[in-house]
Amino acid sequence: MSGASEEPAIETRGLTKRFGRQAAVDNIDLAVPRGAVFGFLGPNGSGKTTTIRVMLGLAGATAGSVRVLGEEMPARLREVLPRVGALVEGPAFYPFLSGADNLRRFDTADRHAPTRTRRARVADALERVGLSHAAGKKVRAYSLGMKQRLGIANALLMPRDLLVLDEPTNGLDPQGTREVRHLVRSLAAEGTTVFVSSHLLAEVEQICTHAAIMSAGRLVAQGTLESMRRSGRARMKLTTPDPADAGRVLRGLGLGLEGDGEQLTAPLVDGLLPEQIVAALVAEGVRVRGFAVENSTLEERFVALTGEGFDVVQ
Ligand SMILES: Nc1ncnc2c1ncn2[C@@H]1O[C@H](COP(=O)(O)OP(=O)(O)OP(=O)(O)O)[C@@H](O)[C@H]1O
């Protein structure tokens, strides 16, 4: 049993989904560890939603395999889905029913959900997403953000081992975004694995432990946030009143300089330690006022891997 619990929460092997000749998802091997908050990043159209749909059995794969919570999908769909909460393309709510009544309807349709505790379950889910005050309001009067949160409440009606959220903060105002972030953190603290797709880098940096980057249907990077930052090239940053001399020394060490004036930066190169750079500068009489080594940011990694800029809205 312990072996099973150590299997990744989601694992794909060679997963491919074609629409005609286009591979929307192209041979991806994704591994989402249990307990992770996993950010699934990529520009629009890179294949995130298609991957999620195939993962959840909403669409069939052209090739490859998917395991969710240690079970083969879609063969074990009926066993797996009750353990998975999902928000994909917003569920269809009845606009003329209240938020609470809509959740009750979804809960009624779930054969695993006991009737006796329905009322409390719905109230709890609404409270978790900050919608208690609007429980009795008709959904047609909800803002987009409120509908989004109601969708998450729906995914949270029953305890879940895995929560899959496709762009959960789309359309949310800053307050709503903060609430969703807070919610994701508290779910993770309770041990739920959260898989969240996003094109918002800041969001992923703030809440995720792991991330993967999609580009044109391919998985171009995945791992812990730390490892993704590390795998980019670190840079040195020098402040000196002697930029001309410093430039000469740094170029002599094989560093490609950027910047001018008193601030010089350069990507570090293999086999040259920061302390060796400082020693060489000092030996040549360059006055070092400041010296720092900075890891690449996730944004730099993303741009380097996908060739696209990133929407860094908070
Ligand atoms: N049902 C479909 N039929 C044909 N092509 C599709 C279909 N669904 C998606 N695609 C195409 O597959 C590619 C990947 O789309 P997908 O929606 O998975 O990307 P995404 O990364 O989720 O982007 P977005 O954030 O815009 O939803 C796109 O080029 C899209 O046009």
Automatic annotation (TrEMBL):
Q: Which GO terms describe its molecular function?
A: ATP binding
Return the InterPro entries for the record. AAA+_ATPase, ABC_transporter-like_ATP-bd, ABC_transporter-like_CS, P-loop_NTPase
- Indicate the segments forming the ABC transporter domain, all copies: 10-241
Q: From which domain of life does this come? A: Bacteria
Q: Which PROSITE patterns does the record match to this protein?
A: ABC_TRANSPORTER_1, ABC_TRANSPORTER_2
UniProt entry keywords in alphabetical sequence = ATP-binding, Nucleotide-binding, Transport
Please state which protein family the record places this protein in: Belongs to the ABC transporter superfamily.
Q: From the Swiss-Prot or TrEMBL record, give the protein name.
A: ABC transporter ATP-binding protein
Q: What is the lineage of its organism?
A: Bacteria, Bacillati, Actinomycetota, Actinomycetes, Micrococcales
